[in-house]
Structure formats: C-alpha cells, structure tokens
Amino acid sequence: MSKAKSVILSLAVMALWGSLFPAVKLGYRAFQIDTGSVADVLMFAAMRFTVCGFLVSLFCLFRRKKAPVPKAPALLKIVLVGLFAVVLHYACTYIGLTTTDSSKTALIKQAGSLIYVCFAFLFFKDEKFSIWKIAGALIGFAGIVAINWSGNRVTFRIGDLLILAASVCTVISGVLSRYAVRDASPLWVTGISQLSGGLILLIVALLMGGALPKPTPGGILIFTYICAASVTGYTLWYYILKSTELSKLYIIKFAEPLFACLFGALLLSENILKWQYAAAFILISLGIILGHLETKKAAADKSSAADPE
Fold it and tell me: In terms of residue numbers, what domain contains 202?
C-alpha cells in the first residue's frame, strides 16, 4: 500500500471513529439511556458490538470460499483482540467516566499510543526506531493537550487511571490485531472480535442489572449508523494494518479526538471556535507529517529490499 493511500484511509477511519462520539451521545438520548448507570451504558455498547459482530460474521460465512474461516490459533488471537479492544477497553472507559471529566478522556486515551510509538521497535521487526516518529508522536500528543487546555492547566482525577488502562488495552489490541490479520481476513477479525467482545459485555451488563434499550424510530436510525461506522472503521483499520507500521497509524490516531470535536459541532452544536482547536489541528497535522518522514538509511533499506539486484 502506498504511503498516501495509507494516510488517506487512516484519516477516513479516524473520521468514522470520531463521528461515533457524538453519534453515541445522540443514541443515548434517542433510547433514553440513563448515562449515570454503568450497567445501562455497557448494555448499549454490548448491543452495538454484538449486532455488528453477528452481521459481519454472517456475511463472512456466505463468502468463506474467498475468505476461509480462521483456524484455531488465529481464532484465539481474534478473540483476544475482542477481549482487549471491546470488553476491557469499554469497561475501563465507562467506569472511569463515572469519576472523571469526559473532556479529559481524549487526552488520556492517547497516552498508550504515545508510549507505543516510542517503543514500537520492541514489538515488531519491521518497526524501525525513528526519531521522526517519536517527534511526530510528541507533537501529535501536544495537539491533544491543546484540545483539553483550560484555565492554564490540565487536571487529572482518580478515574483517569481507568481511562489510562483503557488506553493500554487499545495498544495491546493493536499489537494482537497486527498478528491476527496475518492469518485471517480483516472482515473475520472485525466480525469475530466484535461478536465475542459484545457477548461478554452483554453477560456483564445483564449481571449488573442493565436494561435493554427501548427501540424508537430515531434510535434505530442512529443505531444503524453507529453499526455501519463501526464495521467500516474497524475493517479498514485491520486492512491497513496488513501493510502499514502500527506506530505510524497510532500517530494518525491523534486526529481522532479532533474529528470528534468537528462532528460534535455538526451534530450537537458544540462550540469549536476556540484557539485550542486551531492549535490542535496544526500540531496533529505536523505530527502526522513528521511521523511519516524517513531517514536516508531507512529509505535506502526499503529500496534495496524492493530491488535486490
């Protein structure tokens, strides 16, 4: 995959994921979900991922000649992806949000990405140490700080530890996904990981006393978009993972909160006419550019690998 195509598709994924923040809020309103109840919120997330995973897995079964069903070792990796990307990630996020400010979530959830970019070369052989990637990650993270800057300081609370744990879960799921897509179709990874993660969340939510959302016409429409954006976003992400360094993708992931702010303005009439957002856009864009620069040695290595003669 060319560098330009990888960046464009990755930004498209960030736009889809960013749009889900206000879309989920609209879903809470449409289904009249009590956001103060962790069980009810987890139930909504469980329904989202169970439905998405079931539909994608069903689609894959019909086209299993082109995309064979993953074998046991690959299946285990995909289920682990679901455990970290869906179950642990969302459980830590939603419980953490009950004791911390939601405005700080975007900042803390990028900490894991920053750490991974700095130490990516320890996980994969094709992840070369690059000062440009570290610089890009630091500048991109500064963009997230800019979004959350208020009153000359950024505050942290106890619940932030759970949000940080969610960030670490995202990174672990990213590493597991990189291995999973080597042995299975991105669609299978999306379907099985979301179905398994959604079912576990469903059981947890039921045990906690969570109530099933009451369907409404508007709610069904919003839920349909949430499912479509989730399936498309995750499938594209796993597809890009097959040929792109995860560290570069995590630098681009800093754009996700920025898209969340933009869609929040469009869908929820939130105010984004602030200097923080302009600064964040500049810093995140600069971080992505720096993260994709290569040293002369790295470029020479790739050239020699492509043309051994």
Answer: 38-100+157-211
Phi, psi of 110 (to 5 degrees): -95, -5
Residue 81 lies in a domain: yes
Q: How far is CA 11 from CA 186, 220, 258, in A?
A: 18, 27, 11
Residue 50 counted as domain residue: yes
**Of the candidates 291, 284, 293, which has an alpha carbon nearest to the alpha carbon of residue 107?**
284
Q: Minimal CA–CA distance to 122: which of 219, 246, 214, 34?
A: 246
Q: Note the pTM of the prediction, 2 decimals.
A: 0.77
Domain membership of residue 126 (yes or no) is: no
pLDDT tens string 215-245: 888 899 999 999 999 999 999 998 898 888 7
Residue 174, in any domain of the structure: yes
Which of 14-28, 73-87, 96-110, 144-158 has maximum average pLDDT? 73-87
Q: Using one digit for the tens of pLDDT, what is the confidence trace for 63-111?
A: 877 878 888 888 999 999 999 999 998 888 777 766 655 455 666 676 7
Total domain count, the chain = 1
Q: What's the sign of the alpha-carbon dihedral 176, 180, 181, 185?
A: negative
